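ok trying again, last paste got cut off:
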Amino acid sequence: MTGEWLSVEHVVESTVLWLTTSAGGADVMQRVMLSARARDIAQGLEATLQPAVTPKIVTTLFCKNLRLDFRSPVAGDIYQHCLTQLFNSGCF
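nice, full thing came through this time. structure:
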């Protein structure tokens, strides 16, 4: 939305936070691969959903605990896009 992508530091920080909140355990290579896939998927999402995702809509994507709110149709679309991309890449 800003035309700028996350810095490497922010991608690493986000991955660590996600692994911590998801009780995930991953070695360094798994974390790098997870981060790379997440970034690729996010870039694809930007191209696909750019007109639909506005700053106002972003605030509706999350519950108070900062988890996705699947009552939001856009959150559901994003989730489905992620699953499709992961499935097509052979991750599942």
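cool. Residues 27-88 form one domain. The helical segments are 8-21, 28-49, 55-58, 73-88.
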